[in-house]
Amino acid sequence: MAELIPLQTNRAADEHEGAAVSIVIPLYNEQHFLRDNADSLARIFDGVVGPGRWSFIFVENGSTDATASLADAVASRHPPSRALHLPNPNYGVALKTGLQAATTKWVFLLDIEQWDLPFITWAWRHRESYDALMASKRADATINHQHFYRRLLSCGLNGLLQVLLQYTGTDTHGPKLLDRVSLQAIIDACELDRGQYDTELVLRAIRGQKRIIEAPSEYRELRPNRNWMVKKIFWNMWALARLVRVMKHVPYEGLARYYRVAREDVLAEAERQREPAPESRRV
Fold first, then answer.
1. Is there a domain that residue 277 lies in?
2. Residues 86, 64: Cα–Cα separation, whole Å
3. Is residue 89 part of a domain?
4. Can you tell me whether residue 24 is helix, strand or coil?
5. pLDDT tens, 249-270?
6. CA separation for the pair 49, 42 (Å, rounded)
7. Distance between CA atoms of 264 and 271, rounded to whole angstroms?
8. In a domain, 216, yes or no
9. Contact 60, 85 (CB under 8 A)
10. What is the distance between the alpha carbons of residues 95 and 142, in angstroms, rounded to a whole number?
11. Helices (H) then strands (E): counts for the chain
């Protein structure tokens, strides 16, 4: 795994400002999405968590466009948010860096180009019952709008995880809400990087008897794929071989605690969130 560079971060900022949750967002060449999408997310978290109760942790990693300076500017618009900068593109290292920089108990892992509001609302409502709340684009085919070849790649990778590593879920790469305090030792122990960091994190959490729940989320591809499918397949096979070697040394500590809900459960929670308080309803 690539070595993490030392980061100068304000680790007391979240506590000083009373933040309840950090939102870790890896950034790589996102200049066309960053400002508007961050502002949209800010409005969402003001409504779901409350103004002043959340903060962005942008982790810009090796961008070749204006993302680095934009990340600093956007973070300053939403205090106590902050932007961290890594020299090389590496999604997994960016995730781990953001998680290790967070000081809040709760951490959302999100991508900047898309999110699922019902999942965010549902996960925040049920956070105290689980250590990890995970969104899955594959759990409900009716709301998975991936292109066919992306579906094929996701299905193949997940099938290999089930066969080789006894993974019983449907997706390890979707948005997540994590109890950072409960998962801190696992966050630090993960060895893989790039697209397999969060897969290792999920597998270690299952074997460590953490309480995990999976919920379907809507998924739409909003930009062209950055890598050719053949290149992705080759890299995933190499990374999967590394993952198998690493997980050989991670035993099950007991029965797995892995739960699932349906999309209608997620939507019902989002609907309740939109309902007015009883005293404000018309009689």
1. no
2. 12
3. yes
4. strand
5. 999 999 999 999 999 999 997 7
6. 10
7. 10
8. yes
9. yes
10. 29
11. 10, 10
Assess if residue 191 is contained within a domain. yes
Domain total for the chain? 1
Q: Is 272 left (phi over 0), alpha (psi -120 to 50) or beta?
A: alpha
Residue 252's CB is within 10 A of a number of other CB atoms, namely 11
Reported in sequence order, the residue ranges of the chain that DSSP labels E, i.e. its strands, are: 21-27, 54-61, 82-86, 106-109, 132-136, 144-145, 176-179, 211-216, 219-220, 257-260
Question: Which conformational region is residue 70 in: left (phi greater than 0), alpha (psi within -120 to 50 degrees), or beta?
Answer: alpha
Largest CA distance in the chain: 63
Q: Report CA-CA distances (Å) from 144 to 141, 256, 260.
A: 5, 27, 17
Whether the predicted model's global pTM rises above the 0.85 cut: yes
At 121-168, the pLDDT tens digits run: 999 999 999 999 999 999 999 999 988 878 888 898 899 999 999 999
Question: What is the CATH number for 113?
Answer: 3.90.550.10
Nearest to 132 by CA among 21, 258, 14, 19: 258
| 113 touches 37 (CB < 8 A) | yes
Q: What is the Cα–Cα distance from 267 to 21, expressed in whole angstroms?
A: 22
Taking residue 283's Cβ as centre, other Cβ atoms within 10 Å add up to: 2
